[in-house]
Design goal:
- The chain has helices spanning 7-18, 29-36, 40-52, 67-97, and strands at 27-28, 56-59, 62-65.
- The protein is mainly alpha-helical.
- It has one domain (7-97): Winged helix-like DNA-binding domain superfamily/Winged helix DNA-binding domain (Arc Repressor Mutant, subunit A), CATH 1.10.10.10.
- It has a three-stranded antiparallel β-sheet with strand order 1-3-2.
- It is elongated.
């Protein structure tokens, strides 16, 4: 089976995941480097790429998820709400039928 993975892309995704749960105060490049056992210079490059796509944003020296990630959360929540409403409607129809 062909291996389509790429170490640099995997590292960027790890940085994105590491920001999870830190959206209020963010993390510094040094904190991310320690968390991911990586070089701070590499982390800075990864964050620059994430920032370019709106997936990370910097405030002072701290980084957190960007607006694009928050928009993905919102879209997921809307899809989940729609699914739950549809399921509830179906359940109520079944109950009414007896």
């Amino acid at each position: 089976m062909t291996d389509y993975t790429n170490a640099a892309q995997q590292r960027v995704l790890k940085v994105l995941k590491a920001l999870s749960g830190h959206d209020l105060y963010g993390l510094t490049i040094s904190q991310l480097a320690v968390m991911l056992d990586s070089n701070p210079a590499q982390i800075a490059k990864d964050l620059a790429n994430l920032e370019m796509q709106g997936l990370a944003e910097k405030e002072g020296e701290r980084w957190r998820h960007g607006k694009a990630v928050l928009e993905m959360y919102r879209l997921f929540a809307n899809g989940l709400k729609t699914t739950l409403e549809s399921t509830l409607e179906t359940a109520l129809q079944i109950i009414k039928r007896g």
